[in-house]
Amino acid sequence: MSENKDPQKFVYDFTEGNKDLKDLLGGKGANLAEMTNLGLPVPPGFTITTEACKVYLESGQAPKALRDEVSAHLAALEERMGKKLGQADDPLLVSVRSGAKFSMPGMMDTVLNIGLSDASVAGLATQSGDERFAWDSYRRLIQMFGKTVLGVDGDLFEEALEDAKAAKKVTVDTDLAAADLKKLVKQFKKIVQDQAGREFPQDAREQMDLAINAVFDSWNTDRAKLYRRQERIPGDLGTAVNVCSMVFGNLGPDSGTGVAFTRDPASGHQGVYGDYLQNAQGEDVVAGIRNTVPLADLESIDKKSYDQLMGIMETLENHYKDLCDIEFTIERGQLWMLQTRVGKRTAGAAFRIATQLVDQGLIDEAEALQRVNGAQLAQLMFPRFDDEAKTELLGRGIAASPGAAVGKAVFDSYTAIKWSRSGEKVILIRRETNPDDLEGMIAAEGILTSRGGKTSHAAVVARGMGKTCVCGAEDLEVDTKRRRMTVGGKVIEEGDLVSIDGSTGKVYLGEVPVVPSPVVEYFEGRMHAGADDADELVAAVHRIMAYADRVRRLRVRANADNAEDALRARRFGAQGIGLCRTEHMFLGERREMVEKLILADTDDERESALAALLPLQKADFIELFESMDGLPVTVRLLDPPLHEFLPDITELSVRVALAESRKDANENDLRLLQAVHKLHEQNPMLGLRGVRLGLVIPGLFAMQVRAIAEAAAHRKNAKGDPRAEIMIPLVGTVQELEIVREEADQVIAEVQAATGTDLKLTIGTMIELPRAALTAAQIAEAAQFFSFGTNDLTQTVWGFSRDDVEASFFTAYLEKGIFGVSPFETIDKDGVGSLVRSAAEAGRATRPDLKLGVCGEHGGDPESVHFFHEVGLDYVSCSPFRIPVARLEAGRAAAGARASDSR
User: Fold this and answer.
1) Residue of 244, 580, 855, 878 marked catalytic
2) Of residues 73, 457, 643, 866, which has the active-site annotation?
3) Of 667, 697, 497, 671, which is closest to residue 598 (Cα–Cα)?
4) What integer pLDDT is reported at residue 241 of this predicted model?
């Protein structure tokens, strides 16, 4: 946090802050201060800090000093504006807006027009010369205040507004006259009285104080907490509150409000992007309740304001060196800036913009790498609709957030959540979304609205979540009460399949087939940069990936069990195999061979089973070493829970019982059932598996080591370069490893002598048990490498069964904030991570040249990759399709560390 922070100061004027004080002033307040410092036209105001919010949330009341500080800043604002809050003849009106450190669009509360009352509304009408405007502003205040501050159901106000429009036979609220709005104000006040049990407050200062507290409270609403969990925003930051003098976009056709982007947030292309709405207040645009006009139309509506706005947008983009998202209001030809922030963007836009800014000289390659992330790259690897497919076009809206989404039409969030939980893929269809729809938006494959534009709530939230979204499809008539959508005489009922293309804005009936993403085709070597839009994206990805590969220290390997996966991984940039799971080689027809080995009663039976398996294993490894020639291949010896290779005890018991009842019992089944009962385990994941199986079944690991060594010798004699690494699983004590290694060294020596080759095979172990991590210094005496099996390590550290807990109680743990994210998805740095760190340090203290890697699924998780870089691992290993993500994040981790060191 900046040195400017004064722990005793809870309120800052816009002239006092700057963009680096986001922790204290929130993003909105810090950027309002920054624009004020730049000399841009910002309405005067002040910001109440996040520290005040934290005190309020902890104690249930605002800090004692806050009221006096607010009074002092309000007095200064009144003096500057030449009017007082709520005075009858010429009232000062203010907005009270939330503003957390991280953007949370629509999740927290805002109240406009504070200071209006029965007494001051007439003064506003006189001062503005527009009676309709004054009463429209008053009804907006009561509506927003009633819903936000007093907890009145917002639908009651909306229904009254719709009834007023119906009575007047108009469709938009701007067609209501002053007399209509007066009646509406009276109705709104009655709704407040009936629902809140109190009158709408007439004292302006009471309005402001209650609104400030309501904004503080909105930090912990269900929708805000859900959004923070979704976006991984810490829950202890609190929100700032911005009190800003009102400027009015609803003063007639020479007034209006809009949202602008310095570049297209959907594609990244440069140009004039945004929405404008004449005779409206700011919330009308982002709420999507009236369809806007493109920002470019402002040039013909108000050329002076348009030119000034274009100049300010260029200033802000050059100052922030990034895409800026801007909110503005025009009051009778006067342009005012209400907010700016670094704008949310789609994954494709992020890569394009990063490289564009490098070409413009605004940022360097290292900064460009920090402007993108692995989650965005993963989005770009999703399939897209097949352009050649036969389709039935329903309509077209605004391409708000790209992607190809197919699902059953649903018309409310509750149904979206319910159907999604039962395995259905759904498209949430609404006239427009609001913050209450957040859970449904998360559950849906995509979002479709008939109103709103690229700056509507649906568009902004969907882009932030990487969710496909089409907005403003005006031809679609959405009837949420009857749960249907009509277009051109065609009716789409709830449950009908629809497909939406967030890159083109097209909406189709039925399921449209998908084809691979151009980014995947690029990684597969089937596409190169060219001139069209897809190739432009590929070129941007290529440039950033090339830089990430140059600067990263972590190498990236693949989890692959066969030659096909290994070759795909190599095309995706894998630098070897970090985990070949040999148990996957024994599925299908070979399963019975392993069953015979496990159930063998005599040495002859066991040796016969091993002899049958050896050539099959050798052939597997020959293919694998050929596909990864010149790169390391870590082969994990057999590590299945034993039950995976034995008949199901229940099925076998039933079969034997039925046979006995018919008096034709099979002798082999009886023998098999007896053996299965003997070997049956209550918790197979913690039973006879891994190194334990190798020690209990003589010759098992020796057979596998021989197969690896003979395959390596075969490849070497064929002028190849096999680099095999043998990994012993589930070691908990160095003695286990020593016994297996002694046997393995003997087998390798025999193969070398028989084949006349010099094999450079290394032997190491997985660190996947807490005891192994705690005794890593001892284990390193017998191991040439460690590979952290973070899946099992997470399971054993937490005492979780990874096969059961995610379905049983993880949802509750996430909702209650016990987890920010599943520890099987992102590594638990404090628990599991501390064992990884200490084991790495202890292992290298014993053996300085000890190679360290990770082969659990955390190896492809962006946040976890940064942790593995920090603790000094040599490589991460992950599934083939996550390799590009791991490469990118390894580069970001290295570049970020260099930037920190240089500071």
Assistant:
1) 855
2) 457
3) 697
4) 96
